[in-house]
Amino acid sequence: MYWRGRVVACSLLLFPGISWHDKGEREWDAARGMTQNHRETDMVSRRNVLLSAVGVLTTSGGAFGQGRAREIRVGVSQDALTLDPANHRNRETQTVIRNIHDGLLTRDADMRIQPEIAESWRQIDARTYEFRLRSGVRFHSGDVLTADDIKFTFDRLAKNNAMSGQTSPRKGLLGPLEDTVVVDERTVRMVLGEPWPILPAMIPFQEVVNRRQLERVGQDGMQTRPDGCGPFRLTEWRRGEAVILERFAEYYGGSTEIPVAGPAQIDRAIFRIVPENSARIAALLAGELDIISELPASAMRQVEASRNAQVMKVNGTRSFFVALNLAKKPLDDVRVRRALNHALDKGAIISRILNNTATPLRGVMSPDALGFNADLPEYGHDLARARALLAEAGVAPGTELVIDTTAALKEIAEAIAALLSRTGLRVRAQVWEGAVLNPMWQNAERRRDRDMYLTSWGNGALDPSDIMVPTLRTGGRGNAAGFSNAEVDRLLDAAETEAEQAKRADMYKRAQAIVTEQAPWIFLWLPQDIYGVARRVQNWRPQADSRINLHRVRVA
Amino acid sequence: MTASRLLERLLQTLPVLFGVSLIVFLMITLTPGDPVEIMLADSRATPEQAAQLRADLGLDRPLPQRFLVFLGNALTGDFGISFFHRRPVRDVIAERLPATIELTLAAILLAIAVAIPLGVIAAVKRDTWLDRALTALSLFGVSLPGFWFGLLLILLFAVQLGVFPVGGRTDFDLEVARVTGFLLIDSVIAGRPDAFLAALRHLALPAITLGLPTAALLTRVVRSAMAEVLTSDYVLFAEAKGLSRRRVLLRHALKNALIPVVTVAAIETGSLLGGNMIVETVFGWPGLGRLVVESIFARNYPLVQAAVLLYAVTYVMLNFTADLLYTALNPKVRL
């Protein structure tokens, strides 16, 4: 009885309001002059208290989905690393930040570039862009946004050591941006060191901060105390658990090009971190979450079958491919590379493993991107032709090839290996840790003995410059195949500085044709991003850049 | 036990901690994979920027120097800056640690509360169907993969019945001033029974998931310890003396049977503290375990080193506490 008495005594101490008595029946009873009958009824009532305590513990949880009529909960797999828009290179972090901070420009759900804080923009010459700002834009603190904030934001991003002594990890996303000049209170100009036509496509990756906030909270404070001018302001950041945002009533309304402009239509937005896929799905089905990202294709049917949720898909921006080590035999022979492209039955993998949630690619680019070449020839699935090409190149049956990949793509790598092995080659998959594998394949010396690398490259800007230059230009930082073609290099370089978009697009189309013909990769597919969305969520759809913008969302 | 003996025991732990520090340092720094390359992956950083970052993080210095710097700073409680949070490791860990401790303590208390009665019953009813059933059940419990069991609990209690939340530590509309970081304690300090209950409700499923295998293991330990004690002479004597069965069991037998139980419980507490990554991941519990796993993949050296050192200190201290408990349970035991 002793320990039980302790527990009860403790709970009495903890919550004097809750009348629950137990310990030392005899003493208590004596003190209260209790008879045997009394004690029995007391036992009963105590049992009731116990039962009702259990009841409180369980049933009050039944109302999870209720009482949050104007609230949206988004389930994401990772916490934000920081809330400082200048100090990260992380997609999940930006997804959260983008609801607190707006940018000069943004993208709508169809990935068109739209003015946001800027009212309009124009290109003055090959190296100068001018942005006209909206009036009446306020930060959450109440400060009015001016051209000085734009200059502060972009200087902090693009200049060396401008982020309190450090250089922003986002600097690279602004290319040759040299200076941001304030023309008047509502006009700024961006000056580039060299022509860079994709600047407008890259601006939506950056969010505007309040220069006065840095003075108020310092560099460390910038990480956790954002003062944005977006539709939501930070209520609380529970590290590792959730970022809780509330509606900012004085929001200027965002882009006028995306209906319906105005303050947010929900009172509260919560980004909850649920790392485990199954748990995220369970939370959606239980009505605890409204939008979940990274829904596995295998779970689509389960979500569709539920009463309160549905599946939403969008073409992603990430091209998947198997980079072939051009420096190694027999992959240095273009016939072998073409044979591998012919040998792979992409359709089988897309339908059986990816549940038809990917678009096959004939080349590098997404069909949604600028300069997509729709006329590329296809390496159709043709085993006989593949075998013939291998024989012609003198590759003996039984030759061993290894596909390197990470654990996340193991299943696909094994399927590719099995399908390629039908040519008579012996292909197998080897799983590595990303921390080891990626740097290895980025270094010509370290990848010398490797054969193939199943990987992908994101192209959030939907511009060839953002994917073809790093992965296919000679010496590009993501050129795992070691591809080097003088004509491709010339076209890519010329397109980098060509101001006229139609001409640029044409150059990229020609470069794509050469790449597909030379086949430095086995061209794979562009996966769709899959979301589970509660049916009560309205006026929201996923967008290709993986942002989850809650600016316009409503709940039924 | 004298104070000097206590101090001596404490000093004996120092070489252990030094050894752990060295091993962890070597293991993580010698594992292939470069934090700078990971941090700059997919970015357009130039080699000069990479070199600058390497210097900023102190990674350009020779290994022995790095170890000495780590050790020296660790003695003053400074574990450096977490590479990807860009904040002091100490702060990052302090934010996450209470959640982990709260979950671990809940799990171990739950395990003990379940294991002692079941173990005693199994020992008393030895070789009956009840004993065999409990033994089978505990074997089942020990073999349950936490990952699978946690998801099963979520599906049943959160999705189907809707009586417990899927994850997280508390409701989003409840805000309790952070004093200790332990939600149960903080809600008591704030005088908020609603927050206390919400925290308890969120704690239930993860604590059951984490505690069940330990409960099963402890049940087996209690049973075998109890079974052995029950055959000893003094128990026979106590019974012969005419003491009630209950008194013999609880006062005489259980107290002596608890020594191995305390040992196992202490070790289990240590391993639960360091081994709850899976449960934390399944339930979205914002604890240290998940952070450490993420840090290992990102080669976030300072955080991993600090966390492992912390685990080691806890382990050593728990064993030390178990030793102290022996002397309380059995005065014949000397440290």
From TrEMBL, chain B:
Lineage of the species this protein comes from: Bacteria, Pseudomonadati, Pseudomonadota, Alphaproteobacteria, Acetobacterales
Domain of life from the UniProt record: Bacteria
Compartments, as annotated in UniProt: Cell membrane
BP GO terms, sorted: transmembrane transport
Domain ABC transmembrane type-1: 97-322
Stated name of the protein: ABC transporter permease
Cross-referenced Pfam families: BPD_transp_1 (PF00528), BPD_transp_1_N (PF19300)
Gene3D superfamilies: MetI-like
Annotated membrane topology: Multi-pass membrane protein
